[in-house]
Design goal:
The protein has a five-stranded mixed sheet with strand order 3-4-5-9-6, with helices on both faces. A two-stranded antiparallel sheet has the order 1-2. A two-stranded antiparallel ribbon has the order 7-8. Helix 3 packs antiparallel against helix 6. The longest helix has 34 residues. It is built from 26 helices and nine strands.
Length: 684
Amino acid sequence: MTATNPLLDFSDLPRFDLIQPEHVKPAIETLLADGRALIERLTADTTPATWVDFAGALSDGLEPFGRAWGIVGHLHSVNDVPAWRDAYNEMLPEVSRFYAELGQNLKLFEKYKALRGSAEYAGLSREQKKIVDNEVRDFRLSGAELPEDQKPRFQAIMEELSQLSAKFAENLLDATNAFAEIVTDEALLAGLPDDALEAAKTAAEKAGVAGWKFTLHAPSYGPVMQYAENRELRARMYRAYATRAAEFADSSSKPEWDNTPVIQRMLELRREDSQMLGFNNFAEVSLVPKMAETPAQVLAFLRELAAKAKPFAEKDVAELRAFARDELGIADFQPWDAAYASEKLLQKRYAFSEQEVKQYFTEPKVLGGLFQVIENLFNVKVKPDTAPVWHEDVKFFRLESPAGELVGQFYLDLYARETKRGGAWMDEARSRRRVVNGIQKPIAYLNCNFARPVGGKPATFTHDEVTTLFHETGHGLHHLLTRGEELGVSGIHGVEWDAVELPSQFMENYCWEWKVVEGMSAHVDTGAPLPRELFDKMLAARNFQSGMMAVRQIEFSLFDMLLHSDFDPAGGKTVMDLLNEVRREVAVLLPPEWHRFPNSFSHIFGGGYGAGYFSYKWAEVLSADAYAAFEEAGDPFDATVGQRFLDEILSVGGSRPAIESFKAFRGREPSVDALLRHSGMIAA
């Protein structure tokens, strides 16, 4: 099978038309064996510690393995059927073990240190020097300097953490999929938009049941919470959503999906591995490769923001409670009333609804508008392209220079599916680097979870969803528009985690520019663009409840940082105890005691944001300040500023510290003022 295994075909694009779960084990085993043989050869005394013979050869030699395992991980995320789940989980321990071995290989570590201490180092390119520096740092974080008798334990911890992270995500997906609210009485669905009803009707028909089927996936859950007049329906959906993958067993939940023990074990292991490395806690380890320097600095940053945002948040929630009481007759305001009452208040105050706006953002126009922004800002062309794909919904595009030269390519997977993990994310299929015959061009995956088209009409997106698409595209552009020629710092590689959100959040600003919105809107029935009057109402409402939204993100960030810096998993306090303490400090709308938010907090337990969720707020400061450069120039598409953003931020990737890139673009240190102004929390 190896000779014809499509996972081992690196000639061009991934062979999604041919790759099957049974290809995973033989391909990954082959590549692991090749990787170990390469390492054996490069760590031999006869191999000189030079860039060409050692560091460059190692990076190039391990690239096929990274690409193949990246494809497997991607398919596990977007096509999580039993066969793919089994194939991924079977090889995950082996892959984790390989990376742990790699990080602890003293011979590799010594070679990198020798290269950094050699006469050659001074003559290396900026990219190459940064890679060598990063490798020396990362070897230390991977336990390379641990005593030999401790390395097996450290390796075992890394393997178990990888498995637990995958288990967390799988439990959450299974628990999300297991719940269904079947409604047979149409009177209970008053207030729901037609497209949400049509999607629920289609889901019921597909499931072979009468009526309407609602699920906990965002395109189904969101409209119920926002528009359903029936309070009991909202309450049932809210409880199901809030207790996913928790200890409460019912007809749609199983004890083995409870993420509580998974979280407990992950915290124990993260604490153990950080202490083995000589750190006080996991947060200190997490911050080593980030811009922020200490947990205390992050906590101070978050609390400073909280102090500025909380008065606005308290005003927001007081207005909401009063409105719910006086206008909606809801005297005992509950969290499942929040989205519904907020939508009604928004409609009353600004005379429009998100549902009204949604009718103008059809998929073809939104994509056309997004691509126009990319072309105007960065002097490239976006064109449809063809490639094997993993699902018929997936589209494929290419970026070209004005001269027609290929810059990069990307897959776009927009719609929610039961076999696809929730949320939205960008990932890499291939990175830019210099190879023997020229430049290998980068390829990205852009994934969202929007409602698919229904009733023969194009899909329509809320303005929030349009913003999400622009956000993920910002990540994609960081990957695709790099000029890096060395893998370790090409695109988002080597970029500090708390700076990696800068390009994504920067792109969100264009969803609020009239010139952009007008060009990417067309009513799903009439084709008319969004009226300027309606846009002005949206603009006036932009900071509606911005205080509430800010403290919510600060709550998550504080919880994450305290959990990984000031929490003893072996102590008497529980994870929920800590979260409740944080809520008492910063939250303005407290959920019920049975709410189990940590059990679905994928970012920190199923993703890479452990002790790093603050990055969103940190990068918001950077992105708002970056966009302010265009505001100061008086044009969101100012060619000079756009070129500078490309040259100093996007194209350099991780080849220099992010703060240096920011200062090269802005000419100064970042300021929090633009973020506060954009959020309506200080005067313009």
